[in-house]
Specification:
Among the domains are: about 5-50 and about 100-280, Beta-galactosidase, Chain A, domain 5 (Distorted Sandwich); about 55-90 and about 380-540, Glycosyltransferase (Alpha/alpha barrel); about 680-755, Sandwich (Immunoglobulin-like). It is globular, with a radius of gyration of 27 Å. It has about 750 residues and is an alpha+beta fold. Strand 30 (about 725-730) and strand 31 (about 735) form a beta hairpin. Helix 15 (about 605-615) runs parallel beside helix 17 and helix 16 (about 620-635) runs antiparallel to helix 17 (about 650-665). The strands form seven sheets. It has a 15-stranded antiparallel β-sheet that branches. A seven-stranded antiparallel β-sheet has the order 16-26-27-28-34-30-31, with helices on one face. Helix content is about 30%, strand content about 25%. The protein has 17 helices and 34 strands.
Length: about 750
């Protein structure tokens, strides 16, 4: 075990939920508090949501659409927003929201004053959480895993001397039907949310112990044990309409007679098949700080260096991806699958004006592209609803979604909040993840399967875009996500025509559909139509502060330090602005970030994570370093969860993506090694990162310069490396290369190992 870069560990139990440690198998999640004598393990299942599918499209929107557009183009903002607030909101206003499953409690008989030698930890190289302590001279170890092969949360307790324990389950603000033992070693815990097509859940808690078990009221008690394993299952009517109860019971029954060591072994093997795909090793410059407990390291990082903490943060992001998003599950929401509340912040839904997308920024380059698939599944679920919303609210073809969706794929506007609600770009941005997956894999079968989805998203904008007074094609009505502008007349507004982010997303979507049609040899006429429309879309422009303009007009921001920097979508995750191709726009992008930061920007965890990726794209390693330190010191909880505040998981994934982006990029015409390396990371190596074009990359660097790299292509083609001083070898034989400026290219064969020496 790498205690520095792969272990979270603490000297004290968690004082609250933000200090507890997460485990998950993609569908089931748990937060482990590590309390010695009265442990709490808070539970989640990814489909335990507040109710059934709702039809929420506002029937008043379509008849008011022409008037709203007229008012916005005439800059009569307040009148337009009054109509939008009433006639374009969802009916009802809210989508369904995520909920907690409850908490498992495990008591151990004993005197708390006699506890010594305490430690709790989470080994992210194996996905195993442990709490160890001595109770009155008796050594006790409690292990918690969320096993995907066996679809269970498992708690194993070992004791050097016999102990007695009790087990119970409760929670959900009393929104459950039963938590009563049904035998001496099993509890059935069940309930749900009523209403049409509401979701019901059923959980079985079964105890296997080497001592005597007995039911006692709402508790299970196990006496004189030296080992016990508690198995927790949960199944819902969302996944299994008619037989979820029997499946949940079978889940716990099937492990009877199987040693915990065997269950643990197959859990670790399954997890490592994902976690072991790539690795990062940064030089240790911590002067011993990397040996401190994790909370002490986080407190220490603001004024000190600890590269191994950055490494741990990178690995923790990969751990959360594997634990929170598996094939066949729901995608990660605002909190992944770890949520303690019945009414969580922002509903713990899929917020798709950046947060859900950010959750998957590290999927492809960290070799976890197959864990991207739950997001693609959600997009497919959104298509029927999105067609209805496009037709009923806007009289448009195709499909669309606003800034939130839920497990049912609801696409109507969410909330009654002018700065965020009326944004028609959610489905379009999500569909760009389909194209990104293709760029990394070059999987034509996947592209063929998903082409119609991207095309249908583009068809909405073929109908929705209107001509502004300058003859440009713009979205209307829309917003620049969650921001507010100030007109020259002093009017404040959010709803507008043609915010910059919208046209940037549409540009990428149209180009993806055009390119896909060419790759697949289809839809040439439609591609030409989109090409013609692309010419009329606004391009990124530089405003009066030297910044990239956020709106079609050069408005001031009411809040210059706003957390969203939506106009820089073109810089990241898009590649419309790059240092090589658009140097002036890159300079303006830098000015945009500096302006935001100078006014207090980056104050939320996910916003800081986005800024890290932007600095990486601008090639500024020192700003990458300073902003990662800021993310860890100001926006990270003791358990390393991102702190918005409150907890949102997007900052974890965005931070992991930013570290990878600093070490390797592939968006600007070739592979670029250590494009934004902080000088503090002077030496190190990474193995098996993925790059666009179907490449597997490994690199070793010293003195802040590349030393040697390995490139393994998955497809045949020309490989381009952004370096003018590199030699390429295949089977120890140097091969011919071509140099064009600072790009070295060579003809690469699939599955061949190429070694590069710099």
């Amino acid at each position: 075990m790498n205690r520095q870069g792969e272990l979270l560990w603490y000297k004290n139990e968690a004082q609250d939920w933000n200090e507890a440690l997460p485990v998950g198998n993609g569908r089931l999640g748990a937060m482990v508090f590590g309390r010695p004598l009265y442990e709490e393990i808070q539970l989640n299942e990814d489909s335990v949501w507040s109710g059934g599918k709702r039809e929420r499209n506002n029937a008043s929107a379509l008849e008011n659409l022409p008037r709203v557009r007229e008012l916005l183009l005439d800059e009569k903002i307040s009148e337009a927003q009054d109509i939008v607030c009433e006639c374009f909101c969802g009916t009802p206003v809210n989508q369904r929201h995520y909920q907690t499953l409850g908490s498992l409690f495990i008591g151990i008989d004993g005197d708390a004053d006699k506890i010594t030698d305490y430690e709790r930890n989470l080994d992210i190289s194996q996905a195993v959480a442990k709490t160890v302590f001595t109770l009155d001279g008796n050594w006790i170890e409690r292990t918690v895993i969320a096993t995907n092969p066996d679809n269970l949360i498992l708690v194993n307790i070992k004791s050097h001397k016999p102990i007695s324990i009790n087990i119970s389950i409760n929670g959900r603000d009393d929104y459950f039907d039963s938590n009563t033992p049904v035998s001496d070693n099993e509890i059935h815990y069940c309930g749900g949310m009523g209403g049409k097509n509401g979701i019901d859940f059923f959980s079985s808690i079964k105890v296997c112990a080497d001592g005597k078990c007995k039911r006692s009221g709402s508790l299970l008690r196990a006496y004189d044990i030296t080992e016990a394993t508690i198995a927790v299952s949960c199944r819902t009517s969302y996944y299994h309409k008619d037989n979820f109860e029997s499946i949940a019971i079978a889940d716990t029954q099937k492990i009877a007679g199987i040693a915990f060591s065997e269950l643990l072994s197959r859990h670790i093997a399954d997890y490592k098949s994902y976690y072991g795909r790539c690795s990062l090793n940064l030089c240790d410059n911590s002067s011993g700080a990397s040996d401190l407990a994790t909370d002490e390291r986080l407190s220490n990082i603001k004024g000190n260096n600890d590269n191994k903490l950055f490494e741990l943060y990178f690995n923790f992001g990969r751990y959360l991806m594997i634990s929170g998003s598996r094939e066949g599950t729901l995608p990660t929401n605002l909190q992944g699958i770890w949520n303690k509340d019945m009414w969580p912040a922002w509903g713990c839904k899929f917020t798709i004006n950046i947060n859900t997308q950010m959750n998957y920024w590290c999927a492809e380059n960290c070799a976890l592209g197959d864990l991207h698939t739950p997001l693609f599944d959600l997009i497919e679920k959104m298509r029927p609803s999105g067609r209805a919303t496009a037709r009923e609210m806007y009289n448009c073809g195709g499909f669309m979604c606003h800034h939130n969706t839920d497990l049912w794929g609801d696409t109507a506007p969410q909330d009654l909040w002018i700065p965020g609600t009326q944004w028609p770009m959610g489905a379009a941005w999500l569909c760009l993840h389909i194209w990104e997956h293709y760029l990394y894999t070059l999987d034509k079968d996947f592209l063929k399967e998903k082409y119609e989805t991207m095309k249908e998203a583009s068809e909405f904008f073929v109908d929705f875009l209107i001509e502004d007074k300058k003859g440009r094609l713009v979205t209307c009505p829309s917003v620049s996500p969650e921001n507010t502008y100030l007109t020259e007349s002093g009017t404040q507004g959010s709803v507008c025509a043609g915010p910059s982010m919208d046209t940037q997303i549409i540009t990428d979507l149209f180009n993806a559909v055009i390119s896909s049609g060419r790759i697949l040899g289809i839809d040439e006429e439609y591609g030409e139509k989109l090409s013609g429309m692309l010419e009329r879309l606004p391009k990124p422009e530089i405003g009066k502060y030297g910044q990239i303009k956020e709106w079609a007009e050069d408005y001031d921001e009411v809040e210059p330090g706003h957390r969203h920097i939506s106009q820089l979508f073109a810089l990241y995750p898009s590649a419309q602005i790059t240092r090589r191709k658009t140097p002036e726009l890159s300079k303006a992008a830098r000015a945009t970030i500096e302006r935001r930061l100078s006014h207090g920007g980056g104050h939320t965890g996910w916003s800081r994570a986005w800024i890290i990726n932007m600095w990486a794209r601008l090639g500024d390693g020192e700003q990458v370093f300073e902003n990662i330190k800021a993310l860890l010191s100001m926006s990270t909880n003791k358990n390393m969860f991102d702190n918005h505040p409150p907890f949102q998981i997007d900052g974890n994934f965005g931070g992991t993506a930013g570290i990878a982006e600093a070490l390797m990029q592939s968006h600007d015409g070739g592979i670029c090694f250590i494009p934004a390396l902080p000088k503090e990371w002077e030496s190190g190596k990474f193995e098996h990162f993925k790059a666009r074009g179907g490449y597997d990359l490994s690199l070793e660097w010293e003195n802040c310069k590349p030393k040697a790299a390995i490139i393994i292509p998955s497809k045949q083609g020309v490989c381009r490396v952004m370096s003018e001083n590199v030699r390429v070898f295949a089977s120890d034989t140097e091969i011919e290369t071509e140099r064009n400026g600072d790009i070295t290219s060579f003809e690469a064969k699939a599955d061949t190992v190429y070694k590069l020496l710099f």
